[in-house]
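Hi V.,

Quick status before I head out on leave. The structure for the redesign project is tokenized and pasted below; the design run finished overnight.
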């Protein structure tokens, strides 16, 4: 049977894949999306940040997101495990106006909504269809798929890997990864009912509670249910992940209080060693987007934002290119994606360093620093001059505080 021929083949129907596919189809390209999972399917990554709204608008799906009934997220709260200190970043107080809120999303529903938008924009979708192997041809790619148990070949001029952290294309093309300056960590999480929550708009906030060598997230998913996860360092602790979760809750007064009435809805899930970044994200006719390019850490909820941003950049690069991406275009794409990831990496390093985190937890509005840091928490990685120098000043103060303590230490 002759292979079907497309302009673009997108592997993966997560936010990166559906965003890139939609933007390309909107520009008249013939696009096929394949995903190995039938939808709806569970996925972690439930808390959006306001900067992600831009690409959702560009895709023409924002109104649908607004109408879907997701929990409105107007801010992020950071606490110590002792419960002694709380910093509340209300997005409307951030340096960049117009980014006041976003949503906490159940990914099974959110991803399905984005995929429906991609279909509406003209994309074809094959599901469940797993990309297996690939061959480079003179005009692009031939990819062997397993479509619900049957083999099938598709041809496309451009290949976009949006298949997430499995590094599908990275492995196929043997693209090396870069070591990141972060510890190896694991996470145990589940959906709970009965988790304590504030009344009113603050009840929609994400809450991040720092404990020794780790942290908890609490993300409200609807009136009843809350996603709760523990992130911890590998320390050779001999216990099941569930026991480790329960022990950490029990030894942290703030979490203990929040979880006093909590009941696990389904089961715990575990992920580990998720941080990596590829040395290259693009070649002459291929691009990696979202987690397929690299994943830093979940703490600042930047994964979906970075997925959407890289999708937009990838679509723009393809639409500007002729038959292939030249060296400058590849470099530009990699630079732009990395610039966004790097800000998030700096914030993550700040968060895990006790002395730096102490500065974050004692905000000052001298020079409007709190408002600037608040905007970065909202995902503003593309900074105006006024935001950038304030952000750099904040990082400098964090660094100075390591050697010359200026604020009280964290109490975890
Ligand atoms: C513990 C944890 C907590 C997180 N919390 C947050 C958060 O609160 N907020 C946030 O924004 N981000 C969070 N993230 C990150 C977020 O999950 C990801 O960054 C985001 O889902 C990336 O989107 P993506 O489209 O790149 O990939 P994905 O969403 O992973 O989508 C990839 C798709 O590719 C498909 N696929 C894989 N292999 C193949 C194949 N060979 N053939 C066909 N299809 C394939 C998969 O089925 C999947 O549907 C978290 C991550 C972790 C690990």
């Amino acid at each position: 049977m002759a292979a079907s021929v497309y302009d673009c083949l997108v592997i993966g129907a997560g936010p990166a894949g559906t965003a890139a596919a939609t933007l390309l189809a909107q520009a008249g390209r013939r696009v096929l999306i394949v995903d190995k999972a039938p939808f709806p399917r569970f996925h972690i990554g439930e808390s959006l940040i306001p900067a992600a709204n831009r690409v959702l608008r560009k895709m023409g799906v924002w109104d649908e997101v607004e109408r879907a009934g997701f929990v409105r997220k107007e801010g992020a709260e950071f606490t110590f495990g002792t419960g002694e200190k709380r910093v509340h970043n209300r997005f409307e107080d951030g340096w960049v106006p117009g980014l006041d809120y976003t949503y906490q999303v159940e990914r099974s529903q959110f991803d399905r909504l984005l995929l429906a938008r991609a279909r509406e924009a003209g994309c074809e979708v094959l599901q469940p269809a797993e990309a297996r192997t690939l061959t480079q041809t003179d005009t692009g790619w031939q990819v062997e798929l397993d479509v619900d148990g049957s083999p099938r070949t598709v041809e496309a001029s451009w290949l976009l890997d949006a298949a997430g952290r499995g590094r599908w294309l990275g492995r196929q093309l043997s693209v090396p990864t870069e070591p990141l300056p972060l510890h190896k960590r694991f996470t145990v999480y589940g959906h709970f009912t009965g988790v304590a929550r504030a009344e009113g708009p603050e009840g929609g906030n994400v809450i991040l509670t720092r404990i020794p060598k780790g942290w908890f997230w609490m993300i409200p998913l609807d009136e009843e249910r809350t996603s709760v996860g523990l992130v911890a360092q590998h320390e050779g602790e001999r216990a099941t992940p569930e026991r480790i979760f329960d022990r950490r809750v029990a030894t942290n007064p703030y979490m203990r209080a929040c979880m006093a009435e909590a009941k696990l809805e389904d089961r715990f899930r575990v992920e580990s060693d998720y941080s990596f970044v590829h040395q290259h994200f693009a070649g002459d006719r291929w691009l990696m987007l979202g987690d397929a390019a690299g994943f830093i850490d979940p703490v600042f909820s930047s994964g979906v934002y970075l997925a959407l941003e890289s999708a937009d950049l990838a679509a723009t690069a393809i639409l500007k290119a002729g038959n292939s991406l030249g060296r400058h275009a590849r470099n530009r794409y990699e630079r732009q994606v990395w610039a966004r990831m790097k800000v998030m990496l700096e914030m993550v390093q700040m968060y895990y360093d006790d002395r730096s985190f102490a500065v974050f937890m004692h905000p000052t509005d001298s020079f409007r620093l709190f408002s600037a840091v608040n905007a970065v928490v909202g995902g503003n990685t593309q900074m105006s001059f006024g935001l950038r120098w304030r952000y750099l000043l904040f990082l400098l103060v964090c660094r100075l505080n390591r050697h010359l303590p200026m604020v009280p230490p964290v109490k975890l």
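Above is the designed sequence. The chain has twelve helices and 20 strands.

G. will cover questions while I'm gone.

Best,
W.
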